[in-house]
Amino acid sequence: MRRLKRNQDRQRGAAGVMVAVMMLVLIGAGAMAVDVGQIYAERAQLQNAADAGAMAVAQQCHAAGGCTDAQALAWAMELSGPNSNDGATTVDSVDLSMPMEVTVVTSTRNGTSGAGFLTKMFSSVLNAPAVTVGAHATAAIEPIGGAEAFPLAISDCQYDLAEGDVTGEVQLIKYKPGSGTCTSTSGHVIPGGFGWLDQTAPCQASTDTDDVAGSDTGADYPNAPPGGDACDAIVTGWRNTILAGGTVEGTFPVYDNAGGTGASAWLHIRGYATFQMLGWRFAGSGVPRVFRSGTADVADPADACNNPCRGIIGQFVRFVDIDSAGEVPGTGPDLGTVRIRLID
Protein backbone atom coordinates (compact mmCIF):
# COMPACT_ATOMS: atom_id res chain seq x y z
CA MET A 1 0.00 0.00 0.00
CA ARG A 2 2.86 2.39 0.74
CA ARG A 3 4.39 1.74 -2.74
CA LEU A 4 1.02 2.44 -4.40
CA LYS A 5 0.76 5.80 -2.58
CA ARG A 6 4.24 6.82 -3.74
CA ASN A 7 3.25 6.09 -7.39
CA GLN A 8 0.13 8.21 -7.00
CA ASP A 9 2.17 11.10 -5.58
CA ARG A 10 4.57 10.94 -8.55
CA GLN A 11 1.64 10.92 -11.00
CA ARG A 12 0.11 13.97 -9.32
CA GLY A 13 3.46 15.77 -9.59
CA ALA A 14 3.79 14.94 -13.29
CA ALA A 15 0.25 16.15 -13.98
CA GLY A 16 1.03 19.43 -12.22
CA VAL A 17 4.06 19.97 -14.44
CA MET A 18 2.01 19.22 -17.58
CA VAL A 19 -0.70 21.66 -16.54
CA ALA A 20 1.89 24.39 -15.90
CA VAL A 21 3.51 23.80 -19.31
CA MET A 22 0.12 23.80 -21.08
CA MET A 23 -0.86 27.01 -19.31
CA LEU A 24 2.28 28.70 -20.60
CA VAL A 25 1.54 27.46 -24.13
CA LEU A 26 -2.07 28.65 -23.95
CA ILE A 27 -1.09 32.04 -22.54
CA GLY A 28 1.57 32.44 -25.22
CA ALA A 29 -0.84 31.46 -28.00
CA GLY A 30 -3.46 33.83 -26.64
CA ALA A 31 -0.93 36.65 -26.43
CA MET A 32 0.21 36.05 -29.99
CA ALA A 33 -3.41 35.92 -31.21
CA VAL A 34 -4.17 39.28 -29.58
CA ASP A 35 -1.06 40.94 -30.94
CA VAL A 36 -1.47 39.45 -34.42
CA GLY A 37 -5.04 40.74 -34.37
CA GLN A 38 -3.66 44.16 -33.48
CA ILE A 39 -1.30 43.96 -36.45
CA TYR A 40 -4.11 43.11 -38.86
CA ALA A 41 -6.28 45.91 -37.45
CA GLU A 42 -3.41 48.38 -37.83
CA ARG A 43 -2.83 47.17 -41.38
CA ALA A 44 -6.47 47.86 -42.23
CA GLN A 45 -6.25 51.37 -40.77
CA LEU A 46 -3.04 52.09 -42.65
CA GLN A 47 -4.73 50.94 -45.86
CA ASN A 48 -7.60 53.35 -45.20
CA ALA A 49 -5.06 56.12 -44.70
CA ALA A 50 -3.19 55.24 -47.90
CA ASP A 51 -6.42 55.05 -49.90
CA ALA A 52 -7.64 58.41 -48.61
CA GLY A 53 -4.25 60.02 -49.16
CA ALA A 54 -3.92 58.79 -52.75
CA MET A 55 -7.45 59.91 -53.65
CA ALA A 56 -6.95 63.30 -52.00
CA VAL A 57 -3.64 63.99 -53.72
CA ALA A 58 -5.02 62.95 -57.11
CA GLN A 59 -8.05 65.20 -56.65
CA GLN A 60 -6.07 68.19 -55.41
CA CYS A 61 -3.36 67.89 -58.07
CA HIS A 62 -5.91 67.71 -60.87
CA ALA A 63 -8.03 70.54 -59.47
CA ALA A 64 -4.94 72.75 -59.24
CA GLY A 65 -3.78 71.83 -62.73
CA GLY A 66 -0.67 70.12 -61.31
CA CYS A 67 1.30 69.99 -58.04
CA THR A 68 4.79 69.63 -56.62
CA ASP A 69 6.09 66.69 -54.57
CA ALA A 70 6.00 68.88 -51.45
CA GLN A 71 2.35 69.84 -52.03
CA ALA A 72 1.40 66.23 -52.67
CA LEU A 73 3.09 65.07 -49.46
CA ALA A 74 1.34 67.77 -47.41
CA TRP A 75 -2.08 66.82 -48.83
CA ALA A 76 -1.45 63.11 -48.15
CA MET A 77 -0.39 63.80 -44.56
CA GLU A 78 -3.48 65.93 -44.00
CA LEU A 79 -5.76 62.99 -44.82
CA SER A 80 -3.74 60.08 -43.46
CA GLY A 81 -4.09 60.66 -39.70
CA PRO A 82 -7.87 61.20 -39.58
CA ASN A 83 -8.34 57.93 -41.46
CA SER A 84 -6.61 55.80 -38.81
CA ASN A 85 -8.06 54.93 -35.40
CA ASP A 86 -5.26 56.46 -33.35
CA GLY A 87 -5.09 59.54 -35.58
CA ALA A 88 -1.40 58.90 -36.22
CA THR A 89 0.00 57.54 -39.47
CA THR A 90 3.35 58.03 -41.15
CA VAL A 91 3.28 58.91 -44.84
CA ASP A 92 6.55 57.41 -46.07
CA SER A 93 6.30 58.66 -49.65
CA VAL A 94 4.10 60.08 -52.38
CA ASP A 95 5.06 59.00 -55.90
CA LEU A 96 4.02 61.20 -58.85
CA SER A 97 6.43 59.67 -61.37
CA MET A 98 3.75 57.80 -63.34
CA PRO A 99 1.61 60.07 -65.54
CA MET A 100 -1.97 60.41 -64.28
CA GLU A 101 -1.24 58.26 -61.19
CA VAL A 102 -0.55 58.91 -57.50
CA THR A 103 0.90 56.30 -55.14
CA VAL A 104 0.94 56.86 -51.37
CA VAL A 105 2.90 54.61 -48.95
CA THR A 106 2.06 54.63 -45.23
CA SER A 107 3.46 52.93 -42.15
CA THR A 108 2.89 52.60 -38.41
CA ARG A 109 3.41 55.51 -36.06
CA ASN A 110 2.66 54.97 -32.37
CA GLY A 111 0.07 57.58 -31.45
CA THR A 112 1.51 58.11 -27.97
CA SER A 113 5.26 57.96 -28.38
CA GLY A 114 5.59 58.73 -32.07
CA ALA A 115 7.76 55.63 -32.51
CA GLY A 116 7.53 53.79 -35.82
CA PHE A 117 6.23 50.51 -34.42
CA LEU A 118 3.23 48.98 -32.71
CA THR A 119 3.16 48.94 -28.91
CA LYS A 120 3.26 45.29 -27.86
CA MET A 121 0.40 44.24 -25.63
CA PHE A 122 1.18 40.68 -24.48
CA SER A 123 3.88 39.14 -26.65
CA SER A 124 6.61 41.17 -24.91
CA VAL A 125 6.63 38.44 -22.25
CA LEU A 126 7.88 36.13 -25.00
CA ASN A 127 10.55 38.65 -26.02
CA ALA A 128 8.91 39.11 -29.46
CA PRO A 129 10.30 42.03 -31.49
CA ALA A 130 8.36 45.23 -32.16
CA VAL A 131 6.42 45.35 -35.43
CA THR A 132 6.18 48.01 -38.13
CA VAL A 133 3.24 47.64 -40.53
CA GLY A 134 2.86 49.30 -43.91
CA ALA A 135 0.37 49.80 -46.73
CA HIS A 136 0.21 51.50 -50.11
CA ALA A 137 -2.46 52.71 -52.55
CA THR A 138 -2.46 53.99 -56.12
CA ALA A 139 -5.13 56.30 -57.52
CA ALA A 140 -5.55 56.80 -61.26
CA ILE A 141 -6.71 60.02 -62.91
CA GLU A 142 -8.65 58.99 -66.01
CA PRO A 143 -10.56 60.84 -68.71
CA ILE A 144 -14.25 60.04 -68.86
CA GLY A 145 -15.02 57.44 -71.51
CA GLY A 146 -18.74 58.03 -71.83
CA ALA A 147 -21.73 59.77 -70.31
CA GLU A 148 -25.50 59.89 -70.27
CA ALA A 149 -26.66 63.43 -69.66
CA PHE A 150 -28.51 66.48 -70.94
CA PRO A 151 -28.56 66.12 -74.77
CA LEU A 152 -26.20 68.95 -75.63
CA ALA A 153 -22.71 68.80 -77.18
CA ILE A 154 -20.26 71.72 -77.32
CA SER A 155 -17.98 72.49 -80.24
CA ASP A 156 -14.27 71.90 -79.71
CA CYS A 157 -13.47 75.44 -80.82
CA GLN A 158 -15.44 76.85 -77.86
CA TYR A 159 -13.37 74.92 -75.31
CA ASP A 160 -10.97 77.34 -73.58
CA LEU A 161 -9.73 75.56 -70.44
CA ALA A 162 -5.96 75.63 -70.91
CA GLU A 163 -3.68 73.24 -69.03
CA GLY A 164 -3.24 74.47 -65.47
CA ASP A 165 -6.31 76.72 -65.56
CA VAL A 166 -8.99 76.01 -62.98
CA THR A 167 -11.70 77.94 -64.85
CA GLY A 168 -12.08 79.42 -68.32
CA GLU A 169 -13.49 82.77 -69.36
CA VAL A 170 -17.21 83.45 -69.08
CA GLN A 171 -18.56 83.18 -72.60
CA LEU A 172 -21.73 82.98 -74.64
CA ILE A 173 -21.91 79.82 -76.73
CA LYS A 174 -24.57 80.12 -79.41
CA TYR A 175 -26.42 77.34 -81.18
CA LYS A 176 -24.19 76.11 -84.02
CA PRO A 177 -25.99 77.45 -87.14
CA GLY A 178 -25.68 81.00 -85.85
CA SER A 179 -22.00 80.78 -84.92
CA GLY A 180 -20.31 80.34 -88.28
CA THR A 181 -17.55 77.77 -88.57
CA CYS A 182 -14.31 77.04 -86.74
CA THR A 183 -11.39 74.63 -86.93
CA SER A 184 -11.10 71.64 -84.64
CA THR A 185 -7.90 70.22 -83.14
CA SER A 186 -7.78 67.85 -86.13
CA GLY A 187 -7.99 70.73 -88.61
CA HIS A 188 -11.58 70.04 -89.63
CA VAL A 189 -13.96 72.90 -90.26
CA ILE A 190 -16.93 72.31 -87.97
CA PRO A 191 -19.98 74.26 -86.83
CA GLY A 192 -19.16 76.45 -83.85
CA GLY A 193 -21.24 76.83 -80.72
CA PHE A 194 -23.21 73.82 -79.54
CA GLY A 195 -25.56 71.25 -81.02
CA TRP A 196 -28.38 69.05 -79.79
CA LEU A 197 -28.02 65.27 -79.66
CA ASP A 198 -30.55 62.57 -80.44
CA GLN A 199 -32.16 61.49 -77.18
CA THR A 200 -31.74 57.95 -75.87
CA ALA A 201 -34.18 58.70 -73.01
CA PRO A 202 -36.37 61.73 -72.20
CA CYS A 203 -33.94 64.69 -72.21
CA GLN A 204 -30.89 62.41 -72.09
CA ALA A 205 -28.29 61.39 -74.64
CA SER A 206 -25.84 58.53 -74.25
CA THR A 207 -22.44 59.13 -75.85
CA ASP A 208 -18.93 57.66 -75.85
CA THR A 209 -15.50 59.11 -76.53
CA ASP A 210 -14.24 58.74 -80.11
CA ASP A 211 -17.70 57.71 -81.27
CA VAL A 212 -20.26 59.30 -83.57
CA ALA A 213 -23.49 60.55 -82.01
CA GLY A 214 -26.67 61.34 -83.89
CA SER A 215 -27.44 65.05 -83.98
CA ASP A 216 -30.88 66.61 -83.62
CA THR A 217 -31.04 69.39 -86.19
CA GLY A 218 -33.64 71.44 -84.28
CA ALA A 219 -32.56 74.71 -82.72
CA ASP A 220 -34.02 73.85 -79.29
CA TYR A 221 -34.55 70.91 -77.04
CA PRO A 222 -37.87 69.17 -77.72
CA ASN A 223 -41.06 71.02 -76.89
CA ALA A 224 -43.33 67.99 -76.82
CA PRO A 225 -43.51 65.47 -73.97
CA PRO A 226 -41.91 63.35 -72.74
CA GLY A 227 -38.63 64.99 -73.80
CA GLY A 228 -39.92 68.53 -73.39
CA ASP A 229 -41.30 67.95 -69.91
CA ALA A 230 -38.08 66.23 -68.80
CA CYS A 231 -35.89 69.03 -70.18
CA ASP A 232 -38.10 71.68 -68.58
CA ALA A 233 -37.74 69.89 -65.23
CA ILE A 234 -33.94 69.75 -65.55
CA VAL A 235 -33.62 73.40 -66.57
CA THR A 236 -35.99 74.44 -63.78
CA GLY A 237 -33.75 72.61 -61.33
CA TRP A 238 -30.72 74.49 -62.67
CA ARG A 239 -32.52 77.81 -62.25
CA ASN A 240 -33.65 77.05 -58.70
CA THR A 241 -30.16 75.95 -57.67
CA ILE A 242 -28.55 79.13 -59.02
CA LEU A 243 -31.18 81.38 -57.41
CA ALA A 244 -30.51 79.63 -54.09
CA GLY A 245 -26.83 80.50 -54.35
CA GLY A 246 -25.67 77.14 -55.64
CA THR A 247 -23.58 76.12 -58.63
CA VAL A 248 -24.77 74.23 -61.69
CA GLU A 249 -22.07 72.31 -63.54
CA GLY A 250 -22.95 70.12 -66.49
CA THR A 251 -20.56 67.60 -68.05
CA PHE A 252 -21.11 67.70 -71.81
CA PRO A 253 -19.51 65.89 -74.75
CA VAL A 254 -17.17 67.98 -76.90
CA TYR A 255 -17.32 67.34 -80.68
CA ASP A 256 -14.45 67.90 -83.11
CA ASN A 257 -16.11 66.96 -86.38
CA ALA A 258 -19.61 67.01 -87.83
CA GLY A 259 -21.40 65.92 -90.95
CA GLY A 260 -24.62 64.82 -92.57
CA THR A 261 -27.89 66.64 -92.86
CA GLY A 262 -31.37 66.22 -91.44
CA ALA A 263 -31.96 62.86 -89.74
CA SER A 264 -28.48 61.73 -90.86
CA ALA A 265 -26.61 64.54 -89.09
CA TRP A 266 -23.83 63.46 -86.72
CA LEU A 267 -21.21 64.78 -84.33
CA HIS A 268 -17.90 63.07 -83.57
CA ILE A 269 -17.24 63.09 -79.79
CA ARG A 270 -13.69 64.03 -78.83
CA GLY A 271 -14.08 63.96 -75.04
CA TYR A 272 -15.96 65.50 -72.11
CA ALA A 273 -15.76 68.91 -70.46
CA THR A 274 -17.68 70.51 -67.60
CA PHE A 275 -19.45 73.83 -68.16
CA GLN A 276 -20.73 75.93 -65.28
CA MET A 277 -24.11 77.27 -66.34
CA LEU A 278 -24.79 80.94 -65.57
CA GLY A 279 -27.60 81.59 -68.03
CA TRP A 280 -29.33 80.33 -71.16
CA ARG A 281 -31.92 81.08 -73.80
CA PHE A 282 -33.70 78.13 -75.34
CA ALA A 283 -37.08 78.03 -77.11
CA GLY A 284 -39.82 80.35 -75.90
CA SER A 285 -39.70 83.55 -73.93
CA GLY A 286 -40.42 82.63 -70.33
CA VAL A 287 -39.24 80.56 -67.39
CA PRO A 288 -37.52 78.13 -67.38
CA ARG A 289 -36.28 78.38 -70.95
CA VAL A 290 -34.81 81.84 -70.53
CA PHE A 291 -32.65 82.63 -67.53
CA ARG A 292 -29.70 84.82 -66.54
CA SER A 293 -28.03 84.53 -63.14
CA GLY A 294 -27.70 88.31 -62.72
CA THR A 295 -23.92 88.30 -62.29
CA ALA A 296 -21.89 91.08 -63.89
CA ASP A 297 -20.51 88.73 -66.55
CA VAL A 298 -23.95 87.61 -67.68
CA ALA A 299 -25.24 91.20 -67.67
CA ASP A 300 -22.58 92.13 -70.24
CA PRO A 301 -24.45 92.79 -73.52
CA ALA A 302 -21.95 90.61 -75.36
CA ASP A 303 -23.04 87.62 -73.27
CA ALA A 304 -26.71 88.46 -72.74
CA CYS A 305 -28.09 86.30 -75.60
CA ASN A 306 -31.07 88.47 -76.43
CA ASN A 307 -33.76 87.16 -78.78
CA PRO A 308 -33.44 85.67 -81.41
CA CYS A 309 -30.21 84.31 -79.88
CA ARG A 310 -30.20 80.69 -78.73
CA GLY A 311 -27.31 79.97 -76.43
CA ILE A 312 -25.81 79.06 -73.09
CA ILE A 313 -23.76 81.40 -70.88
CA GLY A 314 -21.06 80.19 -68.50
CA GLN A 315 -17.48 78.97 -68.22
CA PHE A 316 -15.54 75.74 -68.45
CA VAL A 317 -14.30 74.42 -65.09
CA ARG A 318 -12.23 71.54 -63.84
CA PHE A 319 -14.33 68.72 -62.43
CA VAL A 320 -13.49 65.43 -60.72
CA ASP A 321 -15.75 62.39 -60.42
CA ILE A 322 -14.57 60.42 -57.38
CA ASP A 323 -14.23 56.62 -57.31
CA SER A 324 -16.35 55.50 -60.24
CA ALA A 325 -15.46 51.86 -59.66
CA GLY A 326 -16.32 49.31 -62.31
CA GLU A 327 -16.46 51.71 -65.27
CA VAL A 328 -14.31 51.22 -68.34
CA PRO A 329 -11.38 53.69 -68.32
CA GLY A 330 -11.72 56.50 -70.82
CA THR A 331 -9.31 56.79 -73.74
CA GLY A 332 -9.98 60.39 -74.74
CA PRO A 333 -8.08 63.56 -73.89
CA ASP A 334 -8.13 65.25 -70.50
CA LEU A 335 -10.46 68.21 -71.04
CA GLY A 336 -10.47 69.14 -67.37
CA THR A 337 -13.11 66.55 -66.44
CA VAL A 338 -11.78 63.26 -65.07
CA ARG A 339 -12.67 60.48 -62.72
CA ILE A 340 -10.39 59.28 -59.93
CA ARG A 341 -10.42 55.69 -58.71
CA LEU A 342 -8.18 53.32 -56.78
CA ILE A 343 -6.39 50.82 -59.00
CA ASP A 344 -4.04 49.27 -56.45
Question: How are the SSEs placed, and which strands pair?
Answer:
Layout: H1 2-63, H2 69-80, E1 89-95, E2 101-108, E3 134-143, E4 146-149, E5 152-155, E6 171-174, E7 181-183, E8 189-191, E9 194-197, E10 205-208, E11 212-216, H3 227-243, E12 249-259, E13 266-281, E14 290-292, H4 296-299, E15 311-317, E16 319-322, E17 337-342
Parallel strand pairs: 5-12, 16-17
Antiparallel strand pairs: 1-2, 2-3, 3-17, 4-10, 5-9, 6-15, 7-8, 9-11, 11-13, 12-13, 13-14, 13-15
Helix pairs in contact: 1-2
Give a quick rundown of the structure.
This protein has 344 residues and is an alpha+beta fold.
Structural account:
A hairpin with a 5-residue loop joins strand 1 (89-95) and strand 2 (101-108). This protein folds into two domains: 11-143; 146-337, no CATH class. The chain has helices at 2-63, 69-80, 227-243, 296-299; strands spanning 89-95, 101-108, 134-143, 146-149, 152-155, 171-174, 181-183, 189-191, 194-197, 205-208, 212-216, 249-259, 266-281, 290-292, 311-317, 319-322, 337-342. The chain is elongated and about 100 Å long. The termini are far apart. It is built from four helices and 17 strands. The model has no long low-confidence stretch (mean pLDDT 79). It is an alpha+beta fold. The strands form four sheets. Strands 1-2-3-17-16 form a five-stranded mixed beta sheet. The chain has a five-stranded mixed β-barrel with strand order 5-9-11-13-12. A two-stranded antiparallel sheet has the order 4-10.
